Amino acid sequence: MIENITSINSSINNAVWGTFGIALLFAAGLIMTIVNKGFQFTHFIYWIKKTIGAIFKDKKITAHTGKDNKAISQFQSLCTALAATIGTGNIVGVATAIIAGGPGAIFWMWVMAIFGMMTNYSENVLGIYFRRKGMNGEWRGGAMYYLKDGFGAYKFMKYPGIILAILFSVFCLLASFGIGNMSQVNSIAGNMESAFNIPTWVTGIALIIIASIVILGGLKRVASVTEKLVPVMAIIYIIGALIIFFANITSVPAVFAAIFKGAFSVKSATGGIVGYGIQKAITMGFKRGAFSNEAGLGSSVMVHSSSNVKEPVRQGMWGIFEVFADTIIVCSLTAFVILSTGVVDLETGMMISQNAGSGLVGEAFATIFGSFGPKFIAIAILLFAFSTVLGWSHYGATAWQYLFGEKTQVIYKVIFVVIIYFGCTMSLDLAWDISDTFNGLMMIPNLIGVIALCPLVSKITKNYVDRKIHKKDVEPMISKFAEYQVDEKELEAEE
Is 286 within 8 Å of 113 (Cβ atoms)? Predict the structure, then answer.
């Protein structure tokens, strides 16, 4: 039975992550970069200033909403989104990419991230523009809404939009059990067993108890936990990686040389056909990059849409920063740790270590931290992966309520929590295969919507740039949806 499931998942996985899937992911990022005039480059200082640079200056960004207001702050939405994206992909995923695709996979991970910034930006802009308020007062937004109300508004696209919205919701629901649950807790359980000799079933029970307390408390409780957990876990991991970076700083030229050399190697090239080496590097770089920052999947937009922000572009810029922090900073540090500590032959790109996944990163950390290295990674994965579980519980709940209504959400949350136990004790390969499969299936309807709605994203972006950056006397673009009626004074106050 397990073998049949693995075979089916592998077939679907290869299909969605083949040439079509990678081309669609790359095309979306490139198109959104072009139509928005390279916003992530041309306005780099501006979006840095309005995101991470504003956290300590603008109290409105971190201010919590009142008890009766179900919206969450911009900072909470970022932390919840980062909680879902900064997970095992930043440790296990990077290691897997290097093992399968060599150092060159990191280059393609960067490429995916650079263009993925604008894909994530566009998702968030559309998420805010098309969001709705649910029965309990929480904002509801995501690909299902801009597929139905945005893509579906085009001529003859009403029913295709409805179908794509339903398909996305189904894939998201299933993905929440894979990328957002089983693969995460499986890594936690495996590392707790290898580092501290804690049986996987004990880890499973402990995680169920903790997750129940947080997840059943709703989005505001999840956001309250993640805004405290994410900054601490990210800072601790980054400090540990930076210690290794400076200890091996003389290896920087060799590491970059291996990355760029491996990115364009053609080890198996024959008669002008791109060889297996570069194909593997590109595929693994894109797959693991997407698993890490999730740009293009349409996932993090569901929590970004719950923010109390009113300007779509403001939340879009948080989407850019999310990808930047996740891949360009955290994943790059993990890659440097692996490539600079002797577990990979930089000349050939071949693996020297026999370890895989988190074991490879733990071995790399052990070169500086000794026996504490693997334990450090086990703790990091515990924090990273569990925060991802919390973030994805909201994504799955959003998809569930879209399909079955808000009153039945508790059913999903109970199922989600119970599955944690099975994720802790199942095969690691099956957990990752399921994750990659539903990642790809989510991506397809979402990117169809994002690409189709690129003219709208471009108009909203231009309107914001003209008003806020170039100080032109231009009227703001206001969403036509009743639940999202704001006036110009509200938008001005937000700034």
Answer: no
As given in the structure block, the two tokens for residue 337 are 């740790």
To the nearest 10 degrees (0 to 180), the angle between helices 200-215 and 409-425 is: 160
Alpha carbon distance 289, 326 (integer Å): 10
User: Which pLDDT belongs to residue 319?
Assistant: 87
Helices 428-452 and 454-464 cross at an angle (nearest 10°) of 70
Cα 148-176-423 angle, rounded to 5 deg: 165
Q: Nearest-CA neighbor of 372 among 236, 195, 243?
A: 195
**pLDDT for position 276:** 44
Which residues, in sequence order, are bridge partners of residue 307?
72
d(CA 265, CA 267): 6
Cβ 331 vs Cβ 108: under 8 Å: no
Q: CB–CB of 80/394 below 8 Å?
A: yes
**C-alpha–C-alpha distance, residues 291 and 87, integer Å:** 9
Q: Under the phi-then-psi rule, with left for phi > 0, alpha for psi from -120 to 50, and beta for the rest, what region is 294?
A: left
C-alpha 339/C-alpha 364 separation (Å) is 9
- What are 171's two structure tokens? 């894939």
Specify whether the backbone of 355 is left (phi greater than 0), alpha (psi in -120 to 50) or beta.
beta
Look at residues 477, 383, 435, 448 and name the one whose alpha carbon lies nearest to residue 171: 435
Tokens 């499973």, residue?
Answer: 204
What are the tokens at 495? 């700034």
Answering whether pTM is above 0.90, one says: no
Q: Which of helix, strand or coil describes residue 149?
A: helix
DSSP conformation letters of 283-319: HHHHHHHHHHH-TTTT-THHHHTTBS---HHHHHHHH
How high is the pLDDT of residue 355? 66
**How far is Cα 108 from Cα 260, in angstroms, rounded to an integer?**
10
Task: Tell me the average pLDDT of the chain.
Answer: 78
> What's the rounded Cα separation, in Å, for the pair 446 and 159?
16
Low-confidence ranges of the chain (pLDDT < 50): 1-6, 8-9, 12, 15, 17, 267-276, 482, 484-485, 487
DSSP tag of 477:
P
Number of helical H runs and strand E runs in the chain: 24, 2
- Nearest Cα neighbor of 126 from 466, 477, 450 is 450
Task: Supply 124's token pair.
Answer: 């968030």
Place of tokens 């293009």: 296
Contact between 38 and 462 under an 8 Å Cβ cutoff? The reply is: no
For residue 417, the one-letter residue type is V
Closest CA to 290 of 20, 22, 13: 22
